[in-house]
Design brief:
heterodimer; A: mainly alpha; MetI-like fold; 22 helices; 79% helix; disordered N terminus; B: mainly alpha; 3 domains; two-stranded antiparallel sheet; 2 strands
Chain lengths: 475, 498
């Protein structure tokens, strides 16, 4: 056998194996049917052609006749009769002779079928299902060559999903796409069924019906629901949302201008939160119920309970008005002015992460393998830094991903307090009209950011956590 | 050496000693705050009333410190707190009149050896009543009071006397497992006190009646044990005390506070500082901030309660179905909820309010919708775990229908984490309510609500900062209380945390 042949066989088996694995799941089987429709039509015709020629059904009938002729059926019949009678006796039911007969007949039929199948399997005669037939076809290089072009999508899926890790990523991306589309449809629908009339709000009470009709026509507000929905969705995904209802500004452009400001503040807050919260949580967990622990956790709870807009006001009052250390409003050219928004936005997330770190660490510290590490004679520091933190970090990272989303939402309030023209305050400003495309764009782009962040975290997990990887391979 | 470690252990498990430490810490913090506030730095003069407050708090701190030393000595010498030391608790009880709830609570705990859950309930019911009486009494400095004021105040005094008597009776006759039969009558009287919103009295009445009837000892024991665990957590008790006081105050405010002071403009008293007539000052329309904050508590509690209970029920039901049926039902429900979960709660609320307008009902709906997925996830996880237990299997073998199994067997057993979650999220709902009102997207601007008051306050931040400070403190304390109480509940109900 030449090298080429081995390689060729490897590729053939590769597709067949991948098909068998994926085909076991019903949803995937359907996707494969649809994507490789042309190939499957040809294969189905071939399958039925072959099946008619096969000897399986002939042998089946033969075996069946054999069993019935052997007279074992009478033995089974008395067995089942006894069983049914005692059952009826136990439940105090009346026995209907005719019904009893049919039940026994059914039971015997079932048993004969089972017996035949068992015997046929023993003598190595099996009925080929379409799936096995198709995967056999996939091992033939000639079949692959002929069908590669018409079934290109199916083969692409087979290649992508052959590796459990890649398959996980593909699945996760599709899930995110589904969620994002769902968010867009949901938010659009909410705004569509709104009883408010943007035309009335913008043109004023004195506007004539003709003016209003004209306004609706310009912005496409007179079109049916599905048309508007389609326009909005395609606009969202091609980054062209058109002009806003008020002021005729390009929505995508203004969102692009405002998004980086919000993202910058949110990211800095997140960094601040992680730098402060994780050491605090670890210290609290290492010395539970100590004075330090109580103080930290009390501070964390206060940080969780303080409304961010009030905290912003108090900060402005103390640091800007009384002490005059920091400017009260945000100015992109002055980096000092970003300090207060960062602290205010990051307070509650710092508190949450600190609490989460503490509880996660406490849980890990009490596990057996930590005791083992101690018993091995490792120093307390090594045990905590090398063994405990790594495992405790897993739930913390998930929580950070989820909190990041909440933070982008909460940014609206902080931005209003410090007069920052970010995406949050943009949405709030636009809601009074309500400016449907602007609000839709703002909310959906934030949701997309959050989905991507969470997706990346999920994928990173699968990459770093050996337990998840081994679970993936098993399934 | 062994003896000392014993004393240390004894100190740790002695409730009174731990309580004393807490009281010292809090009284000391308040003393320092009062001392700082008593001197007006810009004008260089002392504020006399604040200074008196400081002196009272400082003396209390010293006194509590002294009792803690005595407790330590008693435990070292006699392994228990002696009667002489317990008597020292009586004067501390009166610190409630200075608003020092911590010291008063400690005093009540010190004076009796027989500390049942009922005793704690009674004591805190009494303290709630006194605080409400004092807060309502501030209205006598107003030009006039509402017609029902005198009657309500008399009722408060009456209830305070009932609670005092109950405290004595409970300390004497009730044990952790037994209450005399005649206590049922007392229990019914206490249940009547629910009308004043004093939920401590409700809890007390309910527990007393159950114990006196003694019909189901195992259920009583379970109830008692859970409450013992919650009440042992000092911070959880104070959280509960503050929540119930707020609730009770907002219930009785219609009888003791005049709504006109909170909403009617009074151009002769614009932006006045704190005084006896206006305890927290007035705003830019001359409206009394104290009354506004008291009435604002109503809105905050109502919105917080409904925007927690509605998603808890809807999300809980969806999660239960999803977890019980699994497979396709699970996939469809949870994937659709993922969509809701991807939008941050505040943004979804803004979108809903943008579409349907800003008012209280829409606010509740908007906050509820965003909270559904988290409840569904919590419930689903519980149900999935419980659906595999033997008792569910046996119910199925007995021929119970799916709905009966879900609602009679699974849901009651998976409620504990839902209760904990709800308590912890009420605080979040209160913050969201005031945040949205602050943005002009929540409660209508003419209604006294904490966020609305703060919105006004933010415009006068430089000149009249008190307008923005006081409502913010109230929001923070209420949320903090819910968080403390929620943490206490979680520690008591969650079998995982020891």
């Amino acid at each position: 056998m030449s090298n080429n042949q081995i390689l060729g066989r490897g590729i053939n088996n590769y597709f067949a194996q991948s098909y068998q694995k994926l085909g076991a799941k019903r949803s995937y089987a359907w996707i494969l049917y649809v994507t490789g429709l042309l190939v499957h039509i040809v294969a189905t015709i071939l399958f039925f052609y072959k099946k008619n020629k096969s000897t399986y059904s002939e042998k089946y009938e033969q075996q069946r006749a054999n069993i019935i002729a052997s007279g074992i059926c009478d033995e089974w019949a008395s067995e089942y009769r006894e069983q049914e009678l005692s059952k009826a006796n136990f439940f105090n039911q009346k026995i209907d002779e005719q019904q009893l007969q049919t039940t026994i007949k059914q039971l015997i039929d079932k048993r004969i079928n089972k017996e035949v199948e068992k015997q046929l399997l023993e003598s190595n005669v099996e009925q080929k299902s379409y799936a096995t037939y198709f995967s056999e076809l996939l091992t033939k290089p000639s079949f692959l060559l002929v069908t590669f072009i018409p079934g290109i999508f199916m083969y692409a899926i087979l290649i992508l999903c052959s590796n459990p890790f890649v398959r996980f990523i593909v699945e996760r991306i599709f899930q995110s796409l589904f969620v994002i589309a769902g968010v867009a449809i949901l938010v659009f629908t909410i705004l569509y069924i709104s009883p408010f009339d943007p035309a009335r709000n913008l043109l004023g009470v004195e506007a004539t019906p003709a003016q209003i009709e004209n306004f609706n026509k310009i912005h496409g507000l007179d079109q049916p629901y599905l048309v508007q929905l389609w326009h909005s969705l395609s606009g969202l995904f091609t980054f062209d949302l058109g002009n806003s209802l008020a002021g005729k500004e390009d929505i995508t452009q203004s969102i692009m201008n405002k998004f980086p400001v919000t993202l910058e503040i949110a990211l800095f807050s997140l960094v601040m939160a992680i730098i402060i919260a994780i050491p605090v949580g670890i210290i609290s967990a290492v010395r539970p119920n100590s004075f330090l622990d109580y103080t930290f956790m009390l501070l964390a709870l206060i940080g969780l309970s303080i409304p961010s807009f009030w905290q912003g006001l108090i900060f402005i009052l103390t640091f800007s008005l009384k002490l005059q250390w920091l400017p009260a409003t945000y100015n992109p050219n002055n980096w000092v002015s970003i300090v207060m928004p960062i602290v205010v936005l990051g307070t509650s997330i710092t508190a949450s992460i600190a609490r989460m770190t503490r509880s996660s660490m406490l849980e890990v510290i009490h596990e057996d393998y930590i005791i083992t590490a101690r018993a091995k004679g490792l120093s307390g520091k090594t045990v905590i830094l090398k063994h405990a933190i790594r495992n405790a970090m897993i739930p913390i990272i998930t929580v950070i991903g989820l909190l990041f989303g909440g933070m982008l939402g909460g940014a609206a309030v902080t931005e209003k307090v410090f007069n920052i023209s970010g995406i949050g305050s943009y949405i709030v400003d636009k809601q009074f009209i309500p400016d449907i495309p602007a609000i839709l764009g703002g909310v959906v782009y934030i949701a997309i950011t959050i989905s991507i962040v969470n997706m990346v975290i999920d994928v990173l997990y699968a990459f770093f956590d050996p337990r998840i990887r081994s679970k993936m391979k098993q399934s | 050496m062994k003896f000392i470690s014993n004393v240390k252990l004894l100190l740790k498990i002695t409730q009174e000693y731990v309580n004393a430490q807490f009281t010292i810490a809090f009284s000391a913090i308040f003393s320092v705050l009062l001392l700082l506030y008593s001197f007006n730095f810009t004008e260089g003069v002392w504020r006399p009333y604040v200074l008196y407050g400081f002196i009272i708090y400082a003396i209390t701190t010293l006194y509590v410190w002294l009792t803690s030393i005595l407790i330590k000595k008693d435990l070292t010498n006699a392994q228990q707190i002696e009667r002489r030391t317990r008597l020292l608790g009586y004067p501390l009880v009166f610190t409630i009149l200075a608003g020092n709830v911590f010291a008063a609570g400690y005093g009540f705990m010190l004076i009796t050896k027989n500390k049942t859950a009922e005793y704690t309930f009674t004591v805190y019911a009494l303290m709630t009543q006194i605080v409400i009486f004092m807060l309502s009494a501030l209205n006598i400095f107003k030009p006039y009071v509402v017609d029902t004021f005198i009657v309500a105040m008399a009722a408060f005094i009456g209830f305070a006397i009932i609670y005092t008597v109950t405290a004595i009776l409970v300390a004497r006759y009730v044990t952790p497992t037994y209450a005399p039969k005649w206590m049922q009558v007392l229990g019914i009287v206490l249940l009547l006190a629910t009308l004043t919103g004093n939920l401590f009295a409700t809890l007390l009445g309910f527990t007393l009646i159950r114990k006196a009837r003694n019909s189901d000892p195992s259920a009583i024991e379970k109830w008692q044990k859970t409450w013992d665990k919650i009440l042992r957590n000092t911070m959880a008790v104070f959280g509960m005390f503050f929540i119930i006081s707020m609730f009770s105050l907002s219930v009785v405010s219609s009888w003791t506070f005049d709504y006109d002071f909170a909403t009617q403009n009074n151009y002769s008293a614009l932006l006045q500082g704190p005084s006896f007539e206006y305890p927290l000052g007035t705003d830019d329309f001359g409206r009394d901030l104290f009354s506004r904050i008291v009435f604002g508590a109503q809105i905050s509690l109502i919105v917080g309660f409904f925007s927690t209970i509605i998603p808890a029920i809807i999300g809980g039901a969806l999660g239960a179905f999803s977890g019980y049926y699994g497979r396709h039902t699970d996939n469809i429900i949870m994937r659709s909820l993922d969509i809701l979960y991807a939008i941050p709660g505040i943004l979804l609320a803004i979108a809903i309010i943008a579409a349907f307008g800003a008012n209280t009902v829409n606010l509740i709906i908007a906050l509820s919708v965003g909270a559904i997925p988290t409840y569904a996830r919590t419930m689903r996880a519980n149900v999935m775990q419980i659906a595999n237990y033997e008792f569910v299997e046996s119910a199925r073998a007995l021929g119970a229908s799916d709905s009966a199994i879900i609602f009679k067997h699974i849901v009651p057993n998976s409620l504990a984490p839902m209760i904990v979650k709800s308590t912890l999220t009420i605080g979040g709902a209160v913050i969201s309510t005031s945040s949205l009102s602050f943005l002009g997207l929540g409660v209508e601007p003419h209604i006294p609500e904490w966020g609305n008051i703060l919105k006004v306050g933010s415009t006068y931040l430089e000149t009249h900062s008190y307008v923005a400070i006081f409502p913010g403190i109230c929001i923070m304390l209420l949320v903090l209380s819910f968080n403390f109480f929620g943490d206490g509940l979680r520690d008591a109900l969650d079998p995982k945390s020891h």
